[in-house]
Amino acid sequence: MKILFMHNNFPGQYRRIAAFLKNKPNVKMYAATLATNSQKYDIPDVRYKPHRDASQKIHPAIYNTEQAVIMGQAALKTLLAAKSKGLRPDIILSHSGWGSNLFLRDAFPDAKLLTYYEWYYYTKNSDGDFLNPNAYDVNGQMRIRMKNTPILQDLAAMDWGQSPTKFQHSKLPDIFQKRVSVLHDGVDTQFFSPADEEVTVEINGKKLSSSDEVITYVARGMERYRGFPEFMQAASKLQKLRPNLQVVVLGNDRVAYGSSRDDGRTFKQWALEDLEFDMDRLHMPGLQPLGVFKQLMQITSAHVYLTVPFVLSWSMMEAMSAGALIVGSDTAPVQEVITDGENGLLVDFFDVDALVSKLCHILDNKADYQPLKEKARETILGHYDTKDLLPKYWKLIQSVANGSQVEGV
User: Fold this and answer.
1) For the chain, how are helix, strand and coil distributed in percent, rounded to 5?
2) Strand, coil or helix: what is 187?
């Protein structure tokens, strides 16, 4: 079987399944990705590069659509060149949303398409209006609706689809949901496991262990979508209440999702300028290797994960697998995995004082929360372990490739 992975930043969501298939007999893998992709992987690839950005003079509601068409055009040109040199995939696993998939049917009309859907956009009861109920005027509503155009094209063209969580699946239009399986990418529970012995992590020259008071926060960027402002307000208050508390924030000083601040400052700049911190006890080393992240999750007293109703981060599940106690936002994506008081704790996304109170109680009663940490690990082992999910993923790929009846996974 010849498999082509289509992802602007490959391997992305396909890292685990590509590694799983590496030694499968009669499986050949290829990747198509952006020319600017700096990720490392070891399968043959072809690279596409859009020749321009969308026009600033185009109607704002179709700016993203033009951007997607330009991306799709670049991918099509590259794939046709690769086809002339012998590339003939049996199935294409493609990541939806950016336009690179738009013309796959034109490049490879006989290939099967298994498409990965992360998010479908809405202006009501969704991510944007969670932060601001009046986020979208009529022009904003038009823009968000049209932002779904490349996703709708993918839904119409696919043979089958995949979405990682029930919540994300539920956001797809009803008419397509029956042809999209809910199948998570999985967590490597052997790597992300609780420590067998005492672990010490050095962050910015400070050595931390589970005997210390440590709270952690991890996200790709520092933004409202992942509750960075709420966490930093809580951390500032906690440092005043607890003179031994160490706060560790992993993430880059950028916005990965949502909008930037209106005043031109980054959220990190805002936090450090407007809030009070003991900088000897606040550690912000940027993104760190997975090994450092794992060790932090093994020693943290509590790991705070906040999110608007949006894509659920891998890091939350990896933290649960590594033995961390999660204090998460009481929002739909988190509720799907965490039941308050059973395998973690949930707090109102916006209630900083409630978060502070919850964290203080945890820090005063660490031993009482050990059963929740153990149950969190059991949740990941029972429902999200790669050793169970990757064989299901392979079965799904085979069934789509051979055109057999596909049942939801």
Assistant:
1) 40, 15, 45
2) strand
Within 10 A of 278 (CB to CB), how many other CB atoms are there? 13
Alpha-carbon gap, residue 13 to 8, rounded angstroms: 11
User: Are residues 235 and 214 in contact, defined by beta-carbon separation less than 8 angstroms?
Assistant: no
Q: Which amino acid is at 363?
A: L
| C-alpha dihedral sign at 308, 311, 314, 317 | positive
Q: Check if the beta carbon of residue 346 is closer than 8 Å to that of residue 307.
A: no
What is the identity of the amino acid at 11? P
Of 265, 201, 194, the C-alpha closest to 229 is 265
Residue ranges of the domains in the chain?
Answer: 2-186+385-401, 200-383
Task: Classify 91 as helix, strand or coil.
Answer: strand
Tokens 């949901």, located at residue: 177
Q: Rounded CA gap, 98 and 119, in Å? A: 11
Q: Which CATH entry fits the domain spanning 200-383: 3.40.50.2000, 3.40.50.620, 3.30.565.10, 3.30.420.40?
A: 3.40.50.2000
**DSSP string across 60-78:** GGGHHHHHHHHHHHHHHHH
pLDDT by residue for the chain (409 residues), tens digit each?
A: 999 999 999 999 999 999 999 989 999 999 999 999 999 999 999 999 999 999 999 999 999 999 999 999 999 999 999 999 999 999 999 999 999 999 999 999 999 999 999 999 999 999 989 999 988 999 999 999 999 999 999 999 999 999 999 999 999 999 999 999 999 999 999 999 999 999 999 999 999 999 999 999 999 999 999 999 999 999 999 999 999 999 999 999 999 999 999 999 999 999 999 999 999 999 999 999 999 999 999 999 999 999 999 999 999 999 999 999 999 999 999 999 999 999 999 999 999 999 999 999 999 999 999 999 999 999 999 999 999 999 999 999 999 999 985 544 4
Q: Which amino acid is at 304?
A: V
Q: How many CB atoms lie within 10 A of CB 69?
A: 19
End-to-end CA distance of the chain: 21
Domain 2-186+385-401: give its CATH superfamily.
Glycogen Phosphorylase B; (3.40.50.2000)
Residue among 15, 80, 71 nearest 43 (CA): 15
Residue 218, SS3 per DSSP: strand
